[in-house]
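**User:**
If convenient, please work through this fold.
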Amino acid sequence: MNIAYKTRNFYPYELRILKTLKTQKEKETSSKIKFYHYLIAGLLGASLTYVTAIIPDSFWTFLFGTIAVFAFAFIVFMPYEIYKKKNRYKLFLRQLSTTLEKGTVDTCVVKTKRIAIAPEYEDESDLYIIELNDNEVLYLWDTEYNLNKKFPCLDFEIYEDSFFKLIGRQIYPLSEKIQPVKIDKNAKWNFMKTYGASGHLETENINFDELLQKYNNCA
């Protein structure tokens, strides 16, 4: 089985998430930095610069001078940072609005009998190995660290990448959560050092039991 996506209408749960995200981002688009913040920073910077110029060199000279530099840097650089942040939010909101208007999402439905988890060793995230059929597996990395709330489950949908980036969730569960087969995290790390790491949503033609044995041999 290859990852093949099909289009369907939103579930109520997905619609709620998208609308909530839109409301949050619309609020975040308005800057919390007001004009008087720049005025205060300017007065503070000017005052400390004056104080630094009239007192003898000492620890206080360094401290006041440093604060003055940060105050002026706030005035110079903060407007540009706010501009970039607003642009990011506007782009996100456009994508969100387009998705809401379309009213559909592309997903890949997966039905399996077994799933294994190779827990995170350092900062590479958890790896799920999903048996697709007798001689094929699917690799799924929990890059957002939120799959374990309702996953693994034997029936689920995988969101296509653009929708995943919008809501930050890769999976829509269609069945109850199960206990996966567990692979030792040290075995996983040694396996990756020997054979390399499998890619996210990559499939491989290999028997599920043979692959698990291969991992266990690296313990």
User: Anything to note?
Assistant: The mean pLDDT is 89.
